[in-house]
């Protein structure tokens, strides 16, 4: 058996080529050069973040530990780091004594040349192996990994436990992004007894942000927060074809009285206001200042990137006589585009595309600079607007919200209005956005899709930027001889005192060119089984004049630039108006909004009923808005179960 093995060994030895020292040397030289090229070990100085050896080792270890979140990986890495620290202590001591003894210049370090023997290779390679991982690797880690400060926090800040580098237990965790959203709303308007409080007064509201926020929530798979649901904004999101005004009046109110879909014992008083639509070609030149939030919170795809796409759509609607300027704010404010003619589209888009998110949010400084730029652009007969685009996350510079609102109100009185566009979710400060827009005589809209951007900035641009009536207030006095109880559906944040109606110094909402506004009251007739409040023992009953009227409608408004208001009056009669698709669809949306807020006054009326009513009254629906609303109702029904 051994003879056969010996024969096999002899054959293998004969087949094995003789060692070639020259070829081996060439191969080793080539391998070394390839290794050096891959590792970046070139002749010359390599850029470093920290100049000192210890600083680079410390910074690299810190970056590596911050980037890792897996418990096992952290434990293993910590152990390796500790062993490496022990091994390099002697070298560290030498460097501390003479920190200039080790040159940063790679040319001064000994290079591995062509090796003539295996002994030379063994003598040279250890120094190269120590040089590359220990000194240069941290630089690569720092450049490649930049964990977000919002996501990766220190162990102690995360509630993790640390008990030493070697023997302790390390339990890191990733900080969940906190939801800091804040919404502007109030408690649902209560049912009022007409004999005790017959007058209802409020400011009109043409904002539509609430509907878009509701849609964003439902499309994300969850019901919206109740405070995010402002019923009047949901109703006013949709275009309606109410009768247009005639003559020189800026708008026309239309009253319709019909049975209530969700309560057989009550009636709905529907007030539809249609604004006049002037010729677009005759509009005055427009001066726009885009005030863009470029803080770190705007980096998400549905924030700054969507904002850029949205403003591209807006530019296509501007005329050559219009001007555009861009001011940004993040930590500090700055003007990135001087006033530029809208015809210079390439220049404007170039400035827009160069914007990047980063830093904190110096909102107050940004607003102040934007108004300063707007004042420099304004001329007689022109319209000047500041359009603030933000997620509403104001966290720097807003030391006095009341002072900021007063500042915006003063600028409003000078003719420069402020509109607010909201982007993104998670830290959406809807309450701040609403306050700024209301004080700035502008509109608040929330843009969650590019389709919504087109609706707001293209289809409704004229109405958003060119008001036809300022400080529009509505006051309804109900007749206690006919109406026992009433409630206003929505407008919780727009309520005014009774005396504010005749006070021209009290600010209110504006109506833009072509805008339609809807307000709906639910009223309970005297003698109805649906009356919720019983009679008072000592109440005195009177039959006032005009007892056949259900109530009386009054509207006050100012022409743009005027200081004195004008009055429109109209009685409310039983069976008044015609119930068409516009009226019925607005009822479906009003019911939908109330369901999302809890449906306190809806009885057994359900999402199925809202869906059925919306489907029956969709009408032509050229843009598909109403069909989309039905889809959202179905989503809400499923999510509410």
Notes on the structure:
This protein has 641 residues and is an alpha+beta fold. A hairpin with a 7-residue loop joins strand 15 and strand 16. The radius of gyration is 36 Å and the shape is elongated. The protein starts with a helix and ends with a helix. It contains 17 helices and 16 strands. It folds into 3 domains: 92 residues, no CATH class; 246 residues, Sandwich (Immunoglobulin-like), CATH 2.60.40; 166 residues, 3-Layer(aba) Sandwich (Rossmann fold). About 16% of the residues have low confidence. The strands form 3 sheets. A 6-stranded mixed sheet has the order 7-6-5-8-9-10, sandwiched between helices. Strands 1-12-14-4-3 form a 5-stranded antiparallel sheet.
Topology:
Blueprint: H1 2-15, H2 21-39, H3 53-67, H4 71-97, H5 118-144, E1 192-193, E2 199-203, H6 209-219, H7 231-236, E3 251-260, E4 263-275, E5 286-293, H8 304-315, E6 323-330, E7 332-341, H9 345-353, H10 363-377, E8 383-390, H11 401-413, E9 416-423, H12 430-439, E10 441-447, H13 450-459, H14 461-465, E11 467-478, E12 483-488, E13 509-512, E14 516-525, E15 549-558, E16 566-573, H15 581-596, H16 607-616, H17 625-639
Parallel strand pairs: 5-6, 5-8, 8-9, 9-10
Antiparallel strand pairs: 1-12, 2-11, 3-4, 4-14, 6-7, 11-13, 11-15, 12-14, 15-16
Adjacency order of strands in the biggest sheet: 7-6-5-8-9-10
The DSSP helix count reads 17
What value does the Rg take, in angstroms? 36 Å
CATH class of the largest domain: Mainly Beta
Counted up, domains total: 3
The CATH architecture classification of the largest domain is Sandwich
Shape: elongated
């Amino acid at each position: 058996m051994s003879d056969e093995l010996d024969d096999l060994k002899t054959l293998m030895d004969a087949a094995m080529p003789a060692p070639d020292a020259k070829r081996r040397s060439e191969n080793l030289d080539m391998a070394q050069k390839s290794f050096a090229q891959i590792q970046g070990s070139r002749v010359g100085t390599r850029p470093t973040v920290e100049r000192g050896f210890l600083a680079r080792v410390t910074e690299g270890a810190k970056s590596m530990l911050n980037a890792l979140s897996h418990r096992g990986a952290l434990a293993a890495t910590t152990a390796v780091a500790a062993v490496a620290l022990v091994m390099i202590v002697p070298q560290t001591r030498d460097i501390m004594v003479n920190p200039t003894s080790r040159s940063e210049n790679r040319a001064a370090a000994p290079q591995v040349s062509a090796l003539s023997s295996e002994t030379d290779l063994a003598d040279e390679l250890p120094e190269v192996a120590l040089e590359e991982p220990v000194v240069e690797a941290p630089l690569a880690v720092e450049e490649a990994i930049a964990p977000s400060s919002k996501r990766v926090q220190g162990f102690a800040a995360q509630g993790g436990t640390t008990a030493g580098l070697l023997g302790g237990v390390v339990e890191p965790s990733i900080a969940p992004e906190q939801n800091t959203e804040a919404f502007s709303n109030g408690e649902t308007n209560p049912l009022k007894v007409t004999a005790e409080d017959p007058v209802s007064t409020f400011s009109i509201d043409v904002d539509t942000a609430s509907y878009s926020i509701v849609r964003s929530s439902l499309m994300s798979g969850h019901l919206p927060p109740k405070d995010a649901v402002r019923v009047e904004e949901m109703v006013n999101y949709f275009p309606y074809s109410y009768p247009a005004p005639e003559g020189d009046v800026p708008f026309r109110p239309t009253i319709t009285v019909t049975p209530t879909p969700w309560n057989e014992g009550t009636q709905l008083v529907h007030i539809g206001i249609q604004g006049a639509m002037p010729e677009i070609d005759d509009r005055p030149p427009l001066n726009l200042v885009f005030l863009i939030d470029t803080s770190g919170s705007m980096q998400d795809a549905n924030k700054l990137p969507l904002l850029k796409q949205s403003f591209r759509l807006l530019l296509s609607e501007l005329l050559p006589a219009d001007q555009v300027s861009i001011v940004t704010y993040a930590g500090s404010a700055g003007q990135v585009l001087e006033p530029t003619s809208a015809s210079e589209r390439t220049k404007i888009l170039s400035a827009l595309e160069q914007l990047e998110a980063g830093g904190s949010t110096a909102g107050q400084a940004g607003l102040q600079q934007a108004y300063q730029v707007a004042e420099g652009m304004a001329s007689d007969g022109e319209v000047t607007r500041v359009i603030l685009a933000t997620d509403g996350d104001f966290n720097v510079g807003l030391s006095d919200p009341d002072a900021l609102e007063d500042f915006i109100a003063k600028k409003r009185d000078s003719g420069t209005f402020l509109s607010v566009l909201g982007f993104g979710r998670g830290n959406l400060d809807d309450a701040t956005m609403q306050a700024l827009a209301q004080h700035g005589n502008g509109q608040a809209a929330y843009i969650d899709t590019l389709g919504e951007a087109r609706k707001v900035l293209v289809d409704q641009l004229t109405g958003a930027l060119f008001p036809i009536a300022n400080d529009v207030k509505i006051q309804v006095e109900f007749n206690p001889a006919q109406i026992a109880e009433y409630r206003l559906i929505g407008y919780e944040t727009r309520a005014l005192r009774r005396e504010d109606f005749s006070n021209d110094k009290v600010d209110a909402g504006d109506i833009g060119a072509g805008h339609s506004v809807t307000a709906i009251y639910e009223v309970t007739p005297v003698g109805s089984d649906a009356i919720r409040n019983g009679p008072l023992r000592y109440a005195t009953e009177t039959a006032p004049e005009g007892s056949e009227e259900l109530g009386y409608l009054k509207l006050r408004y100012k022409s743009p630039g005027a200081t004195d208001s004008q009055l429109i009056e109209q009685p409310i009669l039983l069976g008044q108006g015609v119930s068409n698709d516009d009226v019925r669809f607005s009822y479906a949306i009003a019911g939908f909004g109330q369901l999302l807020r809890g449906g306190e006054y809806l009885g057994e009326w359900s999402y199925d009923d809202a869906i059925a009513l919306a489907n029956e009254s969709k009408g032509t629906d050229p843009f598909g808005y109403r069909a989309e609303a039905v889809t959202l109702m179905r989503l809400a029904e499923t999510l509410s179960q």
